Amino acid sequence: MSRETLGLLLGFVGVCIFAGTLPFTHIAVEHLSPLFITTGRAALAGLLALATLLLLRKCWPSWRQAGTLGLVALCLVAGFPGFTALAMQSVPASHGGVVLGILPLATSAISTLIAGERPSPAFWLAALAGAALVIGFTLHQGGGQLGQGDVFLFGAALSSALGYVLSGKLARAGLPGWEVIS
Fold it and tell me: Among the four residues 8, 40, 67, 175, which has the most C-beta atoms within 10 Å?
């Protein structure tokens, strides 16, 4: 199998797994606290990542990289799961999936500010149109107002976007992408 095909296959598997995030979180918050869910996810993922990195004898990051990795972890390991767990207490998973459609625009905006990316005007036009649809849907569902769950979902999107951009910067600086996410 070519690296390109493997990359596409792994990307597809990742999208399928990510698609289950909100429905499974919604089920979990019916029985467990959002804090427990968030810390449990972080602990399990952290232990698996640490075991993998130690088993493969990967080098420790520099102090500067470690600081950025700490912020990435705060965003992607605590922020996104924590905000989505809080949101799933008051909105359906399907609603959350639509609201998280704002994530590409948030990632692009933060990437422009932090990483110096410069998407084309056509991209911004399409992204803003998509964001307007997401915001319109959210306001329509909330009777013209944002609910508490919506605020948490927007927090999840911003947290995730910042984590993605910082992860990308670390990968560009030479830290392998899979090690960054670990």
Answer: 175
